[in-house]
Amino acid sequence: MLRALAVDDERPSLEELLYLLNADPRIGSAEGAGDATEALRRINRALESGPDGPDAIDVVFLDIQMPGLDGLDLARLLTGFARPPLVVFVTAHEDFAVQAFDLKAVDYVLKPVRKERLAEAVRRASAQRGTTPQGPAPRIPVHEPDPDHIAVELGGVTRFVAVDDITHVEAQGDYARLHTDRGSHLVRIPLSTLEERWRSRGFVRIHRRHLVALRHIGELRLDAGTVSVLVGSEELQVSRRHARELRDMLMRRTTG
Fold it and tell me: What is the mean pLDDT of residues 127-145?
């Protein structure tokens, strides 16, 4: 069973997180820390006591924005430890996901925390630690994929974005940022996966970092040997590798 440390400077958020963790049968113990400095002291004490010691910590559930030492700072410090605990970020801000996974975070959970979403993070941590759940694990609902929509998580709420509303997709590490006329959403899906999934829906790769919906391309621009496309108000560069294929596709689309 996992031994957890929850870190959050907001007392109500910390208490709610501890309540949910202690209700999970895969968590053997869960303690709280009110800031990253206190958490670092506890982690150092845990490492001194050894993996089977009374203060041992398997996983840290870590807020990001805290006064003084923040969650990302603490995670960076832990990467220098010989046997650091696993890290799950729990935050109200989606903008740090790429940095979090660059630091080898197990998961990135958005506030307000939902029981089912936290249970998935615990499952991932348990799998990495190789622990065996004691008793039945919380049941996580599974939904069949909807080809016309993609699920995104914002503020702990799952929403469904219509694929036809997506103008282009930008690679951000193991994540992809979906752009629409009303904003953007970060999803934990590689760009290559979305390219394969949405090829039949008119999405085309124009660059190693960008996938674009042909129907949302307003202009194709040529300037001194460089090629770019206008998608809404944003101009995106087209790599030489993809330029000819893109021109051919746009020509077939306009003449077909």
Answer: 51
